[in-house]
Design brief:
The structure is a homodimer of 363-residue chains. The first copy, chain A, has 363 residues and is α/β, with parallel strands linked by helices. In chain A, 30% of the residues lie in helices and 25% in strands. Chain A is built from eleven helices and 17 strands. The first copy, chain A, has helices spanning 39-45, 62-71, 88-103, 121-136, 183-192, 206-216, 218-229, 236-244, 252-255, 282-285, 347-356; strands at 5-10, 56-61, 80-83, 108-113, 117-118, 140-145, 156-164, 171-178, 195-205, 263-268, 273-274, 294-295, 300-303, 309-312, 318-322, 327-331, 335-340. In chain A, β16 and β17 form a beta hairpin. The longest helix of chain A is centred in the N-terminal third of the chain and has 16 residues, at 88-103. The mean pLDDT of chain A is 94. At the A-B interface, β15, β16, β17 and α11 of A face β15, β16, β17 and α11 of B. β17 of chain A pairs parallel with β15 (318-322) of chain B, so a sheet runs across the interface.
């Protein structure tokens, strides 16, 4: 990868559907959810073969930055961009692009979530190299995930005609970005063969995405200009904050990409991608035994139990399951979740309930 | 009740099907399973209106005696009979009868388990008074429970003809004691109308049951004679122990009652009796909410959950259930059980597994 390529890791989110393990101050990406490494550490680890740490940026919030630095010491301090408050991916992308363009007018950047799992690192590298090639040809590139089931938990991207045969990977024009569909619509997307899951991974030239923001989000663009004018002065933090708080929270997909020209997609199959979005996704990421059970605790005694996840960290505690099917059990010090696997999305409502009733200790 | 009536509480058992709350050194009857009182305390409390503490005996094992004395201070020290080791209900009954006969040749005694729940105390008193009347007419009396469902967890007693119209309660001759049936046989018992659940509660004259033991269990009878000869000497403990260890473990139902003459049954309906034998029985004893859920913890958040028991004592812990039906969750400090309610009997196998694998800390 050439010296103008950069990776930008977005890491401001929380992961409410992974409660009670994921908490306000221990968000999903900072937890060793799947083993020894945290999702953030894994994300950096799979980039480090392509990018030296000086060309990896992290955009996050103040509350998470120090833990991130503790988990990954290699990324330089000045590569952490701190959002004064969460304002959606469009703002994050704009800030990162503006900072990179100021550092390097030729910058080409990949935007990558911090909390996704990717099993096949080699394919990911191959795909990312191809995507950078396409981006260098002035396309706004997105990586799509070829769907494996009719999920209504993801947004979708519909592809159009093949863009070119000159890349070592099939690349298509993007026809439309689509919001999370209902189950029936998702069935149609799956059958159509021309829809991908929206992975939230994008690759583009910094100047190109900024120009697009200038066209479609003039308020954000103007704010970014004011912020960058003060970036190398003592007023950086103050200017960032005062401009940032007024921004509307919008996603880059719908506020920018949807209406942009020259949007391309590389659909990926076999990445082993998973957004680890809710507890039921762990069946895909970890390794079920012959009965379909997954246990992270050493002390799980399963009797007539099938397709059940037992997630616990306290190896002094014995967990016994009898006669269970398709169930998720998450055992932490101060909270226990027992949930039918197909209702794992509802964990989000638990967190909303706790917020509403001000049960801060469990948040 | 006249001065020759006695109550004998049998309390040596463990209650393995109530693991992980019931443990080797914290057996079922010594736990406040259903609220403030332990089952043992409730058992004493419902006898104390009929018997002064001096006429209530407790047969138990050494490991449990001190905790029992701590829970019930009113029963005199000398009324605790300590089994050197568990040797079945026939041995317990024989020892209690022999001791009582020595104290009071006219003694009539009720044998009562320490770990059952009875909702309607007034009816229990009424029934017991009637049963003592029948026993004073030289019958070996048992209390039957009119079955409410085709349980295969209980033994059954088939009744014969009406014994007499002179008692204030219908009393029948016993036709047969029957072991725990399979489901289909239990259906037949339920339909027959002449079968009761075997409650393990018996009422008889001490001299009569001893005579019956003399006929049917000569080895036990001889041992009891040797034990009683030394009872008021300094050799009591030694003689008890040396004779006790050789006894075979047998139940009074099958070793004595089955072949006895003059066996009578008082079938009880509406006692609200429950043997609290396994976790699913708590749905009958505690008070389910409108969704059929029972929670003993203050912090249970139930979403789309029905007919589910959440049993926990740690009110700092939040337990969330989503999409569960017919499930039992028992949460303790060092062990968690999640079990389909209709498989609650299998908890016994968990304890056997733990014994086999020498996981002493969880027993």
């Amino acid at each position: 990868m050439n010296e103008h390529t950069y990776a930008v890791i977005m890491a401001g989110g929380g992961g409410t559907r992974l409660w009670p393990v994921s908490r306000k101050n221990r968000p999903k990406q900072l937890l060793p959810l799947l083993g020894q490494e945290t999702l953030f550490q894994s994300t950096v680890a799979r980039l480090i073969d392509l990018f030296p740490p000086e060309r990896i940026l992290v955009v996050t919030v103040k509350e998470q930055a120090s833990e991130m630095r503790a988990q990954v010491a290699s990324i330089p301090e000045e590569n952490y961009l701190i959002e004064p408050a969460p304002r959606g991916t469009a703002s994050v992308v704009g800030l990162a692009a503006a900072v990179l363009k100021q550092r390097d007018p030729e910058a080409v950047m990949a935007i990558l979530p911090s909390d996704h799992f990717i099993r096949n690192r080699d394919l990911f590298h191959y795909l990312l190299r191809a995507a950078f090639k396409v981006a260098e040809h002035n396309y706004l590139v997105t990586l799509g995930i070829t769907p494996l089931h009719p999920s209504s938990a993801y947004g979708y991207i519909q592809q159009g005609e093949l863009l070119s045969t000159e890349f070592k990977y099939p690349v298509y024009k993007v026809k439309r970005f689509k919001e999370k569909p209902d189950e029936e619509t998702a069935q149609g997307f799956l059958r159509s063969g021309d829809h991908s899951w929206n992975s939230g991974m994008f690759i583009w030239r910094a100047d190109m995405i900024l120009a697009e923001i200038g066209k479609q989000m003039p308020a954000l663009f103007a704010a970014l200009e004011r912020i960058m004018a003060a970036w190398n002065t003592s007023n950086r933090d103050e200017t960032l904050k005062s401009n940032w708080m007024d921004l509307k929270s919008e996603t880059v997909d719908y506020a920018v990409m949807e209406k942009a020209e020259n949007v391309a997609i590389l659909p990926a199959s076999g990445l082993g991608w998973n957004d680890v979005g809710s507890w039921d996704t762990l069946f895909d990421v970890l390794f079920p035994d012959i009965n379909g059970n997954v246990s992270t605790t050493l002390q799980h005694l399963a009797m007539e139990t099938h397709n059940t996840l037992v997630y616990g960290n306290n190896h002094e505690r014995l967990i016994v399951t009898i006669g269970l099917d398709d169930t998720v059990i998450v055992d932490t010090d101060d909270a226990l979740l027992v949930c039918k696997a197909d209702q794992a999305q509802k964990v989000r409502e638990v967190v909303e309930h706790l917020q509403k009733h001000r049960q801060e200790k469990y948040l």
